[in-house]
């Protein structure tokens, strides 16, 4: 039982796959803006040409994803303190804009 608990705890990350093509961005665990992009690219299998910036994020989400993709952001206030309010607003806007252009992308804020 202890082994299962340790394994479950070790699997908790700043980005956790919720379901196929879905990811949780946990504000308590995110370290930097670069960390956000690196983990999104990894968890959502972005191409190696992904530019790790907001423009590239929008482009990838709005055009390259053909499967249902849910991006859930949790602990917004903590993320804003770590990444800056302006950057968080821009990140949310980029994902929101992509979801309008690609109905397969869904943004959930918690």
TrEMBL record:
UniProt-listed InterPro entries: Barstar, Barstar-like_sf
Superkingdom of origin: Bacteria
Keywords of the record: Signal
Domain Barstar (barnase inhibitor): 23-100
Endpoints of the signal sequence: 1-19
Stated family: Belongs to the barstar family.
Listed name of the protein: Barstar family protein
Species the sequence originates in: Bacteriovorax antarcticus
